[in-house]
Amino acid sequence: MDLSSVTFSCYSLSKTLPPFSRLLFLQPSPHSTTFLPNPSLFFSRQNIRAIKASQASNLSKNDDFVLEDVPHLVNFLPNLPSFPNPLQKSQAYSIVKKTFVSPEDVVAQNIVIKKYSPRGVHFRRAGPREKVYFKSEEVRACIVTCGGLCPGINTVIREIVCGLNYMYGVEDILGIEGGYRGFYSKNTMRLTPKVVNDIHKRGGTFLRTSRGGHDTHKIVDNIEDRGINQVYIIGGDGTQRGAELIYEETAKRGLQVAVAGIPKTIDNDIAVIDKSFGFDTAVEEAQRAINAAHVEVESVENGVGIVKLMGRYSGFIAMYATLASRDVDCCLIPESPFYLEGKGGLFEFIEQRLKENGHLVIVVAEGAGQEYVAADVHATDKKDASGNKLLLDNGIWLSDKIKDHFTKVQKMVINMKYIDPTYMIRAIPSNASDNIYCTLLAHSAVHGAMAGYTGFTVGPVNSRHAYIPIARVTERTNTVKLTDRMWGRLLASTNQPSFISSDQEKADKDIIQDLNNINITSI
Ligand SMILES: Nc1ncnc2c1ncn2[C@@H]1O[C@H](COP(=O)(O)OP(=O)(O)OP(=O)(O)O)[C@@H](O)[C@H]1O
Ligand SMILES: O=P(O)(O)OC[C@H]1O[C@](O)(CO)[C@@H](O)[C@@H]1O
Ligand SMILES: [Mg+2]
């Protein structure tokens, strides 16, 4: 089956399939532009909406299958030739029963559904395709890493290089040094399997990284000047936003350049994907800090341990580290407001735990309670080079507040042990399972780019790797949902206060229930 007809003639494809596997194209978000075969319509969001509306009105009641597809090079280069995938002849894949992913294979965003509920949103399954849109000897790929560090970046770099070379015979691979600005301010570095052979054993990024410095035009000029035709971009939400702009500019200029994003974030704040690489490694490393705090406070009278962990707007590291440890009495995250004084407050809880156990450990995510810290220190907003707000030190603030309260108000001597492992949880190599995860991400990205997809991010959705439109992962930040079971599990595990009065809790639940009902009936 011709890939281009699959990608762009989705209505004709749907007619060839049994009803249960029809791909219908009512896209709720404005990212699935790939179904529009006319390049002049391609960049007009208004036109896209108009077409979607007309498609929507043609849908019958059972037509509730949504594919949020990723762009393809033939969208704006309709005459691009394709070639048989060299994997067909590869030693590794020749024994694989089903070497190529079928164009009809999709991954469901929601897998817990009700019997009669709509089939919902799906993404294209990642993996090698029967046809590729690049001749191996004509590929000139580049890799760039941006934003903060994360365990596993080097593994992703290594596996992109080795994957391109071993699976597709690509030999021309460039490393862009020092993040986005490296495109226009530095020389490139030649990457071969030999050069990257051992880098997965080291933390950090072999290519180095930076914040700020994204200049789309300069970057794409540089891509054009250097004859680069595959761009692999490893980075967090900011980086992926930058990748989307690079894709849009390359498409606007009609360049045969595949832009692939590989999501990286220690905070696990990237939407849609199950989890970001390096997260498990960081949670594991955080156990060492929690354990140290616990050992310290257990050994003294009225020991209060505080461990501050990363997590700017999302408390996933703190939540998972707490759940894994079982030595944590209270976990504070940005998503869950808390208060110190009065009934149900943190001070009351500390007093109670000290009476019961003689010690306690608190884990606090760096973004938790920022508004209280700001009110106390009267700080002005400061930003990093990428425009991210620089956070105030809530760990020191919390330690001081607790010490003050217990010495001055309660007239009680407490033994405070404050541990801030900061970069130690992310400046390490990835563990075994993250290494495997990184390999899958890298290979998925390589297969996707070779197959001519562009403007996509790779990642697991319900455990299956998928190609996701970049804008889909940047439109919102993944945060801990207080109404989800995981936070409930944490509260059950620590038995800490929820910091929500029961009246408020009931009112919130009612609102959520109402919203759920509205969603169900309006679909
Ligand atoms: N909206 C945006 N448009 C274009 N480029 C952006 C945008 N936001 C950030 N960038 C660029 O992406 C790069 C990384 O961004 P940022 O420092 O926010 O890290 P990140 O990718 O979000 O990773 P982390 O998870 O470590 O925060 C920087 O070079 C920055 O200039
Ligand atoms: O000091 P840097 O490198 O800007 O990184 C710190 C930030 O990076 C993150 O780890 C996200 O990558 C945040 O949790 C943290 O606030
Ligand atoms: Mg970010």
From TrEMBL:
Statement: the UniProt record of this protein carries the keyword Kinase: yes
Active site positions: D267
Keyword line: Allosteric enzyme, ATP-binding, Cytoplasm, Glycolysis, Kinase, Magnesium, Metal-binding, Nucleotide-binding, Transferase
Compartmental location: Cytoplasm
Pathway assigned in UniProt: Carbohydrate degradation; glycolysis; D-glyceraldehyde 3-phosphate and glycerone phosphate from D-glucose: step 3/4
Domain named Phosphofructokinase: residues: 141-447
Regulation (activators, inhibitors): Allosterically activated by AMP.
Catalytic activity: beta-D-fructose 6-phosphate + ATP = beta-D-fructose 1,6-bisphosphate + ADP + H(+)
InterPro entries: ATP_PFK, PFKA, Phosphofructokinase_dom, PKF_sf, PyroP-dep_PFK_TP0108
Superkingdom assignment: Eukaryota
GO cellular component terms, A-Z: cytosol
Binding site for substrate: T265, I266, D267, M310, G311, R312, E366, Y423, M424, I425, R426
Transmembrane regions: none
Subunit structure comment from the entry: Homotetramer.
Protein name as it appears in the record: ATP-dependent 6-phosphofructokinase
